[in-house]
Amino acid sequence: MVALLAIVLVGGSGITVWRAAHHDGAADIDRADAIVVLGAAQYNGVPSPVFQGRLDHAVLLWDQGRTDLVITVGSKQLGDRHTEAESGADYLERHGVPAANIVALPTGHTTYQSLQAARNEMARRGLDSAFLVSDPWHNARLGAMSSDLGIQAYPSATWTSADTSVITRGKEYVRETFAYLYYRVFGGG
Length: 189
Known about the structure:
Layout: H1 2-21, E1 34-37, E2 42-43, E3 46-47, H2 49-63, E4 70-73, H3 84-94, E5 102-105, H4 111-124, E6 129-133, H5 139-149, E7 152-155, H6 166-186
Helix pairs in contact: 1-6, 4-5, 5-6
């Protein structure tokens, strides 16, 4: 009985992650109050290919006139000189998003912490809806966390990430299935 329950929970989580990954929240609405770009690795201020894919997707949404504010989030690793948020903001500015429309929040070593920082900034500005930009397999967990934090979220993932091999993507779906299930059972923090 316990094994059957585990199979149902893992299978249901896997289906949720897969379905969320293949739905673009930007198709649901024309505009949101903000775009929140979840951080990823950066190297001495230069976004990694995975992070660049996310930032390019944010630029696409910006160019479509979907919002007036882009928020980048993410701290730095030990020894880094730059944060993910700062690197992302610099990249966005170089690609046509005006500096006045970018907020870099150099906070968060986890997705939940980064979303908390974004929520706090949005609340300070009286905003409540956001396109969340990350990789597709994160969509389900991003949506759940954002809902729990009071953000009206529309995950809009990049498909131009550097994670392109079937094996790499498969591993990410499996990892995210368990991360989503863990979050749903134990919550954030």
